[in-house]
């Protein structure tokens, strides 16, 4: 009996890790989307906040962040580059599959990408989402949107969509951050700063409502008050710092070369609603009395979003400058060769039906599930809606 909506035969039973080979006709790269000109900004923001009752007056304030950069988000350009790089990497491995690209909030939309694939005879798709962690907004909402896109494209009866696992602890996602933190610390050292005394590393991710954080991950996993979302980020920050230390000392068990903490950015919503804290700006301000420099690591982001450019490159840097702290912002993975190769690995493991024991994962939390468990990452506000690549509901 089918337990998963519009899944491939191998995934339809709802097994946590699909260890049967699967045939796919195409890869669907799933993005968030972003405006590509001033006229796009307000319609885009209305798409992002649809159903949340946020007035245009508030959206106009956010729109100024985009207009600061001529109304253009970098995210679509990054996804075009990632699509091309992934297509090239797959071809180099002898995987002859087209890569389609669709966004949640702006053109090209998911339903357009699915309709294009359907028209070209690609009716068994494997989705790769440009988000590595588990939460409503970073996983389940994409799965819900894929189901709605199937309906919008009138393709429910013809097209199946599986999704690669959340890849927060895949080496391909982690390595670019190790490179970036290592380079940042070496740069600050060359300026005469002491790693243990003068520098703090802040791993930054998007804040989410505390209730959604508690709901993140399967309901039968007890991962603490922050759920899978916080646990995954903390685990990977620790992995990154240990890997940097290992590079410097040659010892796999070496302690982290500098102090670090997990902080958050881009909080929104009513002030009365609890969100994950502390905010990156508050954290930077608190360091002023004890540190001389801060390394900001956008660990929650696959590529540069407007939140990275505005909240970190603009606001966080101003905060650091105001408190006399040097600041280096580490790059997001983007099209780093290790990241592109890692995405291809994730695709190959589903094509080949690689058992979980053969899948790379750098934390005890992984490898994460191919098919999300019942109610996984359901919205605390909206509940669980129909979604692909997960057991009902």
UniProtKB/TrEMBL annotation:
Work out whether the entry's keyword set contains Cytoplasm.
yes
Specify which residues bind Fe-coproporphyrin III according to the UniProt entry for this protein: 73, 142
SUPFAM superfamilies, per this entry? Chelatase (SSF53800)
InterPro entries the record matches: Ferrochelatase, Ferrochelatase_C, Ferrochelatase_N
Q: Determine the domain of life of the protein's source.
A: Bacteria
Binding-site residues for Fe(2+), renumbered to this chain: 206, 307
- The UniProt record lists the EC number as 4.99.1.9
Instruction: List the molecular function annotations (GO) for this entry.
Output: ferrochelatase activity; metal ion binding
Task: Write down the chemical reaction(s) this protein catalyses.
Answer: Fe-coproporphyrin III + 2 H(+) = coproporphyrin III + Fe(2+)
Q: GO CC terms on record?
A: cytoplasm
GO biological process entries = heme biosynthetic process
Pathway(s) served: Porphyrin-containing compound metabolism; protoheme biosynthesis
The places in or outside the cell where this protein is found are: Cytoplasm
Q: Which UniProt keywords apply?
A: Cytoplasm, Heme biosynthesis, Iron, Lyase, Metal-binding, Porphyrin biosynthesis
Do the record's keywords include Lyase? yes
EC top class, as a word: lyase
Q: Its family?
A: Belongs to the ferrochelatase family.
Q: What does this protein do?
A: Involved in coproporphyrin-dependent heme b biosynthesis. Catalyzes the insertion of ferrous iron into coproporphyrin III to form Fe-coproporphyrin III.
Q: Which HAMAP family match?
A: Ferrochelatase
Instruction: Name the NCBIfam families for this protein.
Output: hemH, PRK00035.2-1
Query: Know the name of this protein?
Result: Coproporphyrin III ferrochelatase
Q: Tell me the organism.
A: Paramicrobacterium agarici
Q: Which gene is this protein's source?
A: cpfC
């Amino acid at each position: 009996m089918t337990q998963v909506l519009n899944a491939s035969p191998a995934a339809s039973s709802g097994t946590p890790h699909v260890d049967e080979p699967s045939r796919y006709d195409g890869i669907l790269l799933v993005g968030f989307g972003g405006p590509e000109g001033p006229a796009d900004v307000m319609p885009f923001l209305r798409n992002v906040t649809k159903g949340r009752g946020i007035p245009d007056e508030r959206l106009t304030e956010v729109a100024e962040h985009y207009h600061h950069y001529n109304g253009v988000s970098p995210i679509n350009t990054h996804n075009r580059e990632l699509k091309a790089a992934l297509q090239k990497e797959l071809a180099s491995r002898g995987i002859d599959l087209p890569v389609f690209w669709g966004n949640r909030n702006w053109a090209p939309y998911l339903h357009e990408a699915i309709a294009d694939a359907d028209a070209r005879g690609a009716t068994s798709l494997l989705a790769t989402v440009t988000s590595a962690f588990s939460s409503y907004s970073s996983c389940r909402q994409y799965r819900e949107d894929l189901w709605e896109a199937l309906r919008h494209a009138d393709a429910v009866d013809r097209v199946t969509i599986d999704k690669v696992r959340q890849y927060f602890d895949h080496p391909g996602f982690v390595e670019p951050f190790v490179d970036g933190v290592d380079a940042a610390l070496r740069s600050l050292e060359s300026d005469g700063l002491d790693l243990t005394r003068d520098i703090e590393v802040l791993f930054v991710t998007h804040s989410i409502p505390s209730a959604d954080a508690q709901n993140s991950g399967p309901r039968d996993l007890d991962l603490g008050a922050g759920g899978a979302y916080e646990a995954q980020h903390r685990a990977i920050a620790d992995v990154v710092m240990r890997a940097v230390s290992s590079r410097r000392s040659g010892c796999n068990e070496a302690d982290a070369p500098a102090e670090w903490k997990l902080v958050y950015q881009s909080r929104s919503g009513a002030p009365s609603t609890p969100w994950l804290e502390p905010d990156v700006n508050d954290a930077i301000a608190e360091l002023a009395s004890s540190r001389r420099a801060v390394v900001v690591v956008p660990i929650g982001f696959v590529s540069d979003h407007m939140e990275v450019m505005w909240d970190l490159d603009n606001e966080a840097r101003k905060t650091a400058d105001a408190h006399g702290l040097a600041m280096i912002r580490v790059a997001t993975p983007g099209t780093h060769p290790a990241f592109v190769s890692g995405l291809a690995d994730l695709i190959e493991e589903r094509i080949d039906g690689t058992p979980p024991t053969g899948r790379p994962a750098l934390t005890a939390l992984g490898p994460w599930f191919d098919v999300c468990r019942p109610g996984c990452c359901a919205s605390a506000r909206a509940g669980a809606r129909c979604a692909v690549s997960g057991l009902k509901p």
